[in-house]
User: What shape does this take?
Amino acid sequence: MNIYLEITLRTLFTIVILLILTKIDGAKQISQLSFFDYVIGITAGSVAAVMCVDQDVSIRASAVSLALFMLSGALFSYLSQKSIFCRRILEGNPIFVVAKGEILYKGLKKARFSVNDLMRELRSQGYFDITEINYAILETNGNVSVMPKALSRPATNEDEGNTVEDDSVRADVIIDGKIMHGNLKAFGKNVQWLTTTLQTQGIAHVKDVALASLDTDDNLSVFPKNNTAVNRTVFQ
Assistant: This one.
């Protein structure tokens, strides 16, 4: 058989198999994919690519392998729906990373989530100041859900007709116990001022700070490495 004709037929067959298996597996958005769904998707894609162009590999054997991977994803989804135990094993549990305006450092370490990762996710949702947040929860799909404090909920002041001042620009001057010298210098401060200010807030060592941010009014917001963890939650 002509090589190009064979590749065309193998590709068309692969497309049909993928269409059937994805229908069985069910439709999911990217944000809904679990870790296993993500791994299975990548692996299935690799198998499908081999199935299309590698003439040394039996198309029947490739189809069986592809079907096993895709159907295992459907099986994992079914088990997660039917069993809380399986759901915890396959998907994990949400983890509290901020509670009542404090960073839960132990939660971050458990999730292998850095302070930079946390701040990026919070900023993407419009929260530049952790003190505005009541709770932040790292979901099993990697997204961070935020519950703001009552006075920090969007549009509250505007709806009531209150006049409020805009927040000043903030910069992180300590992240994970390390001083951000560039940010500190940009605000006209030095390490001596920083350590002295920390001591007035009862913090003796920079290494004990998860995050410290400074605004243009010289207000330093400090979040110690809080190792408290919320072990049992309603998010099971």
